[in-house]
Design a protein that fits this description.
Blueprint lengths: L9 H16 L8 H4 L14 H4 L7 E3 L21 E6 L4 E4 L4 E4 L15 E6 L6 E11 L8 E8 L12 E6 L6 E7 L2 E7 L9 E7 L4 E5 L2 E6 L10 E8 L9 E11 L11 E2 L1 E4 L5
Parallel strand pairs: 13-16
Antiparallel strand pairs: 1-15, 2-5, 3-4, 4-15, 5-14, 6-11, 6-15, 7-8, 7-14, 8-9, 9-10, 10-17, 11-12, 12-13
Protein name: Glycosyl hydrolase family protein
InterPro entries: ConA-like_dom_sf
């Protein structure tokens, strides 16, 4: 570390100095050179990690909702570059509730108690307000539990939806970060764009207590989906890219008044990153394009 090599000038010298400082500080060189990092390096350099943010070195968070210090659903994010605004709004059409619980937020289909016969029906949602973004990276840590098996299974949706209610067009431009069920091992991802939809269903993701980090990266040219740090799907269809600022919506999805299997979905944290740093992920599986007929 004490020796210095002569003749390092221009970009080569800059990168060498950045690397030396990064080693001394214990951080990635990209974090010290955002102007260079905006053109991400190849994913062949990707590190390990259970999240996309770790594997692809997304850097500092714009915001992080983790509910670890007694925050309510009305509280802004507790850390990140933008912690002045943001709150979650709950809506329900049945017995379900979204509640602050321990170090996270939980969706309860109803009163969760062993042996209870209380009904479980309807849909519950949490929508993030006052944190819109058209481009960026979003990542959510989730696990689910199913406590009955004789009735219908709930679905659970992690989405980006238009942040302005005036842009809500019955789901015609929603992006699905992940769609799953506590009683299944399949995860679906996709995006809607007017009369077209792109999607794919992936198998082998067993629920009931298993932790998953679901993420999506939306750039000016491509959308990439991740599960536990691995790129699982992508599309470069220009029409699929969001045209308005988006926000996070989480939904425990029932079937009207139909009785459902008692379930709980736990969200440990919800995070957002910009695109200034990080490695370029590989292409994931190609999405299938189909016709879409959105309806409210």
């Amino acid at each position: 570390m004490g020796q210095r090599r002569r003749g390092l000038t221009g970009t080569t010298g800059l990168m060498a100095r950045i690397a030396l400082v990064a080693v001394a500080l214990g951080i990635a060189p990209a974090a010290l050179a955002p102007g260079i990092a905006e053109a991400p390096a190849s994913a062949s350099r990707a590190a390990g990690g259970d999240t996309a943010a770790q594997r692809y070195e997304w850097g500092r968070m714009m915001w992080d909702f983790a509910w670890e210090f007694g925050e309510s659903l009305d509280s802004p994010p507790y850390r990140g570059q933008d912690i002045t605004s943001g709150r979650w709004v709950e809506r329900t059409t049945g017995t379900g509730r979204a509640v602050k619980y321990g170090g996270g937020v939980e969706f309860h289909s109803a009163l969760v108690r062993k042996g209870t016969d209380d009904p479980d029906f309807g849909t519950s949602t949490l929508t993030l307000e006052d944190q819109p973004a058209k481009r960026g990276r979003w990542e959510i840590k989730e696990r689910s539990y199913r406590y009955e098996q004789s009735k219908r299974d709930y679905g659970f949706l992690l989405q980006l939806v238009p942040a302005d209610p005036a842009d809500d067009d019955c789901g015609a431009h929603d992006l699905t970060i992940a769609r799953l069920s506590p009683g299944d091992d399949r995860v679906s991802v996709g995006v809607n764009a007017g009369t077209s939809t792109w999607g794919r269903t992936l198998s082998g993701y067993r629920q009931h207590g298993t932790h998953y980090a679901f993420a999506v990266e939306v750039t000016a040219r491509r959308i990439t989906w991740f599960i536990n740090g691995r790129a699982v799907a992508s599309t470069d269809a220009a029409a699929a890219l969001p045209s308005v600022p988006m926000t996070v919506r989480m939904t425990l999805l029932g079937h009207g008044t139909a009785e459902m299997n008692k379930s709980v979905v736990k969200i440990d944290w919800v995070r957002h990153y910009d695109l200034k740093r990080g490695l370029r992920p590989p292409d994931g599986a190609t999405l299938e394009k189909r016709a879409l007929d959105p309806s409210c």
